[in-house]
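SEQUENCE-TO-STRUCTURE ENTRY
===========================

Backbone structure tokens: a row of integers, each naming the local backbone shape at its residue.

Task: work out the structure tokens from the sequence, keeping to the layout shown below.
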Amino acid sequence: MKNRLFIPAVAILLLFIMAIYFFVNPSYEKSLKAKYYYEIAEYEKAYSLAKEAFSLDVYNRMAATVMTQSQTSLKYVAYIKDAKKYMLIIDEIATHENISDADRAKIRMISNVMISAYVKLAPSVVTDEALIKESAQFYSKFEKLLEKVNKN
């Protein structure tokens, strides 16, 4: 009877000690905070905390993972920000009655840049679906714009 309880008791004790270490160790504490910020889409804060945690303990795999995920998400956020900015420029050009050859070249150049920037994005399994979807929509818009500009 004592033998049956001894092994589970030792296992629970070890898990308890590991949990305490996990919450008390500054590297893991920061990586937990980084994971929280990543989950609420605060990618810059998550990246910063994960980088700090990783510098404290290079064997902290959670910190390394959150740092990489945050970096990827920040690339998507930057792409979407640029896409919105360039779409405003293109929309402003489109309001003109006649679009000059220079404006067509500008639209062509912007579209080519944004298409090649999208191709360089590398989603991971844990990248926010909303970021992937929104960037894909902008990519599709830039492809259609390029197609229209090249036809004329």
